[in-house]
UniProtKB/TrEMBL annotation:
<dbReference type="GO" id="GO:0016020">
    <property type="term" value="C:membrane"/>
</dbReference>
<dbReference type="GO" id="GO:0005794">
    <property type="term" value="C:Golgi apparatus"/>
</dbReference>
<feature type="transmembrane region" description="Helical">
    <location>
        <begin position="72"/>
        <end position="91"/>
    </location>
</feature>
<feature type="transmembrane region" description="Helical">
    <location>
        <begin position="29"/>
        <end position="52"/>
    </location>
</feature>
<dbReference type="InterPro" id="IPR013861">
    <property type="entry name" value="TMEM115/Pdh1/Rbl19"/>
</dbReference>
<feature type="transmembrane region" description="Helical">
    <location>
        <begin position="103"/>
        <end position="125"/>
    </location>
</feature>
<keyword id="KW-1133">Transmembrane helix</keyword>
<dbReference type="Pfam" id="PF08551">
    <property type="entry name" value="DUF1751"/>
</dbReference>
<dbReference type="InterPro" id="IPR035952">
    <property type="entry name" value="Rhomboid-like_sf"/>
</dbReference>
<feature type="transmembrane region" description="Helical">
    <location>
        <begin position="190"/>
        <end position="208"/>
    </location>
</feature>
<keyword id="KW-0812">Transmembrane</keyword>
<dbReference type="GO" id="GO:0006890">
    <property type="term" value="P:retrograde vesicle-mediated transport, Golgi to endoplasmic reticulum"/>
</dbReference>
<keyword id="KW-0472">Membrane</keyword>
<protein>
    <recommendedName>
        <fullName>Transmembrane protein 115</fullName>
    </recommendedName>
</protein>
Length: 310
């Protein structure tokens, strides 16, 4: 059984806690990934019932949930297991077990629904049956979402391996994956998962995540707007498009964000405002990681979704 009881923040000593302190929820999810992989390894035909096969999703609609927990190669399995363990070690103490589990389930589901719709669209556009009957699966949509979560909670944390701040990691990863997808023979096996996982996690964190320590939902701060995924030079072009899309799909465009008034006093967010809550969450995230004595750049190595097709 996966334990959903709230996980109190715990500290792991800097000396030898990097590979310890994983919660029961994270170990349960990692075990689930391993078990599903072994079932398909022993009984290969089962893949057509667990993976996302768009042409068979009706009536096998459960694959919109199950496909996210199936890895089709040992390499992607190892990366996903390490990703869920280290991602949970960073995020679960900050969010709590229930919210962390909810994030994993929703991002997986939205990623698979979006991939399903894309596959159907590509089939009608090209009449290529491969888009309908190739089994698609993988946990890398959620791993991409973890990168977005790190961007939200600790954007200014320096990733020394990459020589950049954590807030740029999701953008660079999506760009790199897109370029790789343009060269790969089978981009459908990973590219939609990464792109839709990134966007759906941002959508949830931006507008819908409920915070138990306040009465607010989401994070409408300017530091977490969709335009922040793009370089400064492109933001004047991206900003109007983002505002239209946010209002169209979510109906929650914040005038406070664009006006920059009503929530700050002398450049400091006022208590009780969305900006104040977002700033407090970022400080808490950075402090929680610092207390556990862990390196963001090391953890990000295990959060980065696999780029190798199964």
């Amino acid at each position: 059984m996966i334990d959903l009881t709230p996980a109190p923040p715990t500290s792991v000593s800097a000396g030898g806690g990097l590979f310890t302190g994983f919660s029961r929820l994270c170990k349960g999810l990692a075990t689930l990934l391993v078990l599903v992989y072994l079932v398909v390894l022993v009984f290969p035909p089962v893949i057509n019932y667990i993976a996302l096969v768009p042409g068979k999703t009706i009536p096998f609609a459960w694959n919109l949930l199950s496909a996210g927990y199936l890895e089709q190669s040992i390499f992607t399995l190892i990366v996903s297991v390490l990703g869920i363990l280290f991602g949970g070690k960073v995020l679960e103490p900050i969010w709590g077990s229930r919210e962390f589990f909810k994030f994993v389930v929703l991002v997986n589901f939205w990623t698979l629904v979006s991939t399903f719709l894309l596959s159907i669209t590509l089939y009608f556009a090209t009449r290529e049956e491969n888009y309908l009957y190739k089994p698609l699966s993988g946990f890398h949509g959620v791993l991409a979402g973890f990168l977005v979560s790190v961007k939200q909670l600790m954007p200014d944390q320096e990733v020394t391996v990459l020589k950049l701040r954590a807030k740029w990691v999701p953008s660079i990863f999506v760009l790199f994956t897109t370029l790789l997808g343009a060269l790969a023979a089978d981009a459908m096996s990973f590219l939609p998962f990464v792109i839709f996982g990134t966007y759906s996690s941002w959508l949830y964190l931006r507008f819908y995540q409920r915070h138990t320590d306040s009465n607010h939902k989401g994070d409408l701060s300017g530091e977490f707007s969709f335009a922040t995924f793009f370089p400064e030079i492109l933001r004047p072009i991206v900003n109007p498009i983002c505002l239209i899309c946010e209002k169209l799909f979510c109906g929650r465009v914040s005038n406070r964000e664009s006006e920059g008034s009503g929530h700050v006093l002398g450049g400091v967010p006022l208590p009780g405002s969305d900006a104040f809550d977002a700033s407090r969450r970022r400080e808490r995230g950075a402090r929680a990681l610092e207390e556990r004595g862990e390196r963001v750049d090391f953890i990000l190595l295990f959060l980065t979704p696999p780029l190798v097709s199964p």
